[in-house]
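Tokens for chain A. Residues wanted.
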């Protein structure tokens, strides 16, 4: 079977999924500018969504550049590479939020810290799902090749 017919590799899957987070971030900024007088629930969602979307998108996109994610998708190296990227981005975003406690320009919000944690958890789940899905696809294709 030609390379062009093979499934997307893990790095491409991660970056494509991370782009969904970037799209959510862009949509949130658009909504913030174009929705006047949002309800309290919508105001909360629009307030925390940039943190959730960034925490989701950043590790997926950055991990797609790691050469270790190009190996076996369920391999320990791929998993550890993603966990290091996830820890780096999560701590960076939490650190930025803590810096905001001393800023006159930005607002510290505990909900932003929680949203960052939720986004990181969603990124971890998405990476695991892609790794398992790719491994299952590769097993299926190997079995079809033998038949």
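Reply:
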């Amino acid at each position: 079977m030609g390379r062009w017919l093979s499934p997307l590799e893990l790095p491409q899957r991660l970056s494509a999924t991370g782009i969904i987070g970037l799209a959510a971030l862009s949509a949130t900024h658009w909504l913030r500018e174009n929705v006047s007088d949002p309800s309290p629930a919508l105001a909360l969602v629009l307030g925390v969504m940039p943190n959730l979307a960034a925490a989701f998108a950043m590790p997926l996109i950055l991990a797609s550049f790691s050469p270790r994610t190009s190996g076996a998708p369920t391999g320990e190296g791929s998993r550890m590479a993603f966990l290091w990227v996830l820890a780096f981005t999560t701590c960076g975003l939490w650190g930025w939020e803590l810096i905001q406690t001393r800023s006159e320009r930005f607002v510290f919000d505990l909900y932003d810290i929680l949203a960052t944690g939720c986004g990181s958890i969603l990124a971890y789940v998405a990476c695991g799902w892609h790794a398992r899905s790719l491994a299952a696809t590769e097993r299926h294709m190997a079995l079809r090749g033998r038949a």
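The helical segments are 10-34, 40-64, 76-99, 110-146. Residues 110-146 form the longest helix (37 residues).
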